[in-house]
Amino acid sequence: MAKSIVIVESPTKVKTINKILGKNFKVVSSMGHLVDLPKSTLGVDIENDFEPKLIVVRKKQKILTKLKKDCAKAKEIYFASDPDREGEAIGWNLVSHIGEGKKIFRVTFQEITKEAVLKAFKHPREFDQKKINAQMARRVLDRIVGYKISPLLWKKVGSRLSAGRVQSVALRIIVDREREIKKFVPNEYWQISVDLKKEGYDNILEASFEKINGEKPEIGSQDRANELVESIRKEKFVVTDITKRQISRKSQAPLRTSTMQQEAFNKLRFNASKTMMVAQQLYEGIDLGDGETIGLITYMRTDSVNVSNEAIEKVRSFIGDNYGEKYLPEIPNKFKAKKSAQEAHEAIRPSDVLRRPNDLRQYLDDDQFKLYELIWNKFVSSQMVPSLYENKKIEIAAGNFQFGASGSTLLFDGYLAIENEAREEESKIDFSHYDKGDNLNLVEVKPTQHFTKPPPRFSDASLVKALEEDGIGRPSTYASIILTLVMRNYVEREKGYLGPTELGVLISDLLVEYFSKIMDITFTAKMEENLDLIEEGDLVYKDLLKEFYQPFNEELDYAEDNIVKTENFVDKDCPECGKKLLIKWGRRGKFLSCSGFPDCKHAEPLTLGIKCPEEGCEGEVVKRKSSRGAFYGCTKYPQCTYVSKELPEEE
Ligand SMILES: [Zn+2]
Ligand SMILES: [Zn+2]
User: Fold this and answer.
1) Do residues 370 and 433 both lie within one domain?
2) pLDDT score recorded for residue 341
3) Nearest ligand by distance to the CA of 575
4) Which of 299, 389, 478, 514 is catalytic?
5) Is the per-residue pLDDT at 400 higher than 90?
6) Ligand 1 centroid vs 582 CA: distance in angstroms?
7) Total domain count for the chain?
8) CA distance 613 to 632
9) Ligand 1 geometric centre to CA of 583 (Å)
């Protein structure tokens, strides 16, 4: 009997799944998208209901030929690409090429384990056209924006630049934040604390100045601070109240894509792309020594916090066995997903909670281990009871002034038994020596100067959070939005924080001026919602594209008529043809180009007008960029290898 063919999109999954399915199946990989819009033209028939013109990707012809051969004798083809829109489309787009005369099945699973895969193959389904349409609509929207706007950038700014639909809004968010930071004016303010001592007890009690005549003080200058310090010195200090309050803190939901990217940045300093790459390795399968590869986590692109009943049962018995019944809530903890989350999806969790991070240490590289541990911790703690703190506060009066000192003690760790670092918030101050009515002696009054701070630049973590809150982007796109902006040199990563480049600001401002709709957060969020509606079957592909295209086309017409070519000539002639040189923007920054282009192809780096400090070198200093950041080099490179982090002084 001919083997049934199983098609997946990645070679790692081939190995894992073939082992599970056994010899009646042959698993093959499509190596991603084989069919896509053409590169050279728009590939969308706007007049004809936005019909996409899909073609076989040129570099993948060979793979398709091989796939056809693999499928030639098979009677059944199972499409087992990832369980989301993109996976659905990757499979469906192949059907017309290899599926003729065959039985076609779609199978999806949230984790690549024996149980999950076998179960999925017992219940294969048909392709979901709504999912495919939603994916196609995203692709076509992005394509129209990219192909129509980019030529305007070439005209105004420089060749080979491009604009993306969602990336451009993200760029705007980053540029807006940079302007906020630049125009921020810090405000001076002062805080005052006192060191106090109780007669016969050696420890110092530090209390902060909280109120004057019952009002929160505003201390804007050193003079005012000194005035208050003088008055405070004259007063007598008495404990007026000691209060205790128990506070319970609940565990957080298990991870989904956006929270995984945030946690991995905050705890591990992984950027969003790295997190997704490592998560994909864990999902697709890791060799656990006996030649058997197993998917260690559930699918990593998800906005759901659901957990399957089987996984809940397993983690509850794990908690009971290893931590005891008092760590186990009476009924499983439930978490609310955001409204667009798909019920069929699951949170990101270990495929088997009994595989503890340390048991797997030897099979994982450092990054895989750290991310697995993070996912495992978050999952197990999400099903444990809250932690319990006791907060104590001492209130102290001194004339019209009120001071306070507070501390908290962990009474019961609860879910914190898993996540040790969270305990550090505990501040142990021993209040047991103080009673209401105690007199305290003043040891010292300590005024400190502060300034209000501007909002910080975005990190991968805070940008993903903002994108999710604004409804822009989806689990499949957060990481690629950031990566694209960095690759295009519109945004720079500096010590983990994202700032716009000069080029990024230029592009963002131009797009905001001419394409206010595309650059509008609400409009973009609405488009994302509409894509969800297509997937749910509540909106039709061509209606969404019409709703989008009409206002876009109006802006496009206006921009085409009004964006004028700008030419920034410099006072230097082309050494080849004598015409004037002008400044142009390329993907790697500014450079000088001959105004006779394309007849004359002369181009040279834009120097800073400073001679190279290297002895005997005739070159000039230029700013260059590498993956490790900006540096200064010489125009005569490679003959001259001068490099410096600092701009050299001009003699
Ligand atoms: Zn020239
Ligand atoms: Zn030089």
Assistant:
1) no
2) 55
3) 1
4) 299
5) yes
6) 10
7) 6
8) 11
9) 13
Give residue 184 CA to ligand 2 midpoint distance, Å: 40
Q: Report CA(206)–ligand 1 centroid distance (Å).
A: 73
pLDDT at residue 81, as a whole number? 95
Q: At what angle do helices 502-514 and 541-562 cross, to 10 degrees?
A: 110
pLDDT tens, position by position, 223-259: 999 999 999 999 999 999 999 999 999 999 999 999 9
Residue 425 confidence (pLDDT) above 70:
no
Centre of ligand 1 from the C-alpha of residue 592, in Å = 11
Give residue 147 CA to ligand 2 midpoint distance, Å: 41
pLDDT above 60 for 559 = yes
Q: How far is Cα 82 from Cα 69, in angstroms, rounded to an integer?
A: 23
Same-domain pairing of 275 and 305:
yes
Answer whether 643's CB lies under 8 Å from 621's CB.
no
Is residue 470 located within the same domain as residue 550?
A: yes
Find the ligand nearest to 611 CA: 2
Whether residue 431 is found in the same domain as residue 531: no
Mean pLDDT, residues 608-629: 80
The pLDDT tens digits of the residues spanning 634-645 come to: 888 888 988 888
- Residue 250 in domain: no
Tell me the sheet residues that pair with 350: 297
pLDDT reported for residue 216: 93
Give residue 347's Cα distance to chain centre: 17
Active site residue 497: no
Report if residue 303 sits inside a domain. yes
Measure 553 CA to ligand 2 centroid, in angstroms.
50
ipTM of the complex: 0.78
Q: How far, in Å, is the centroid of ligand 2 from the Cα of 639?
A: 8
Look-up of token digits 């797997």: 360
Q: What is the pLDDT of residue 616?
A: 86
Q: Residues within 5 Å of ion ligand 1 by Cβ?
A: 574, 576-577, 594, 596, 600, 602
Ligand with minimal distance to 616 CA: 2
| Total length of the chain | 651
pLDDT at 60: 92
Residues ≥6 apart with Cβ < 8 Å to 217: 209, 211, 228
Say which ligand is closest to the CA of 578: 1
Task: Give the end of a domain, one of 412, 429, 451.
Answer: 451
Q: Could you give the angle at the alpha carbon of 544 between the alpha carbons of 540 and 548, nearest 5°?
A: 170
Q: Which CATH number belongs to the domain containing residue 160 in this structure?
A: 1.10.460.10
Residue 251, domain member (yes or no): no
Asked if residue 371 and residue 284 are part of one domain, the reply reads yes
34/91 same-domain check = yes
Q: Computed over its alpha carbons, how large is the radius of gyration of the chain?
A: 31
475 and 522 in a single domain? The answer is: yes
Task: Tell me: pLDDT of 301 over 80.
Answer: yes
CATH code of residue 222: 2.70.20.10
Give the ligand with the smallest distance to the CA of 637.
2
Give domain status of residue 252, yes or no.
no
What pLDDT score does 1 carry?
Answer: 64
Helices within 537-648 (DSSP H only): 541-562
Residue 427 has pLDDT above 70, yes or no: no
The domain containing residue 594 runs over which residues?
567-603
- Same-domain status, 511 and 408: no
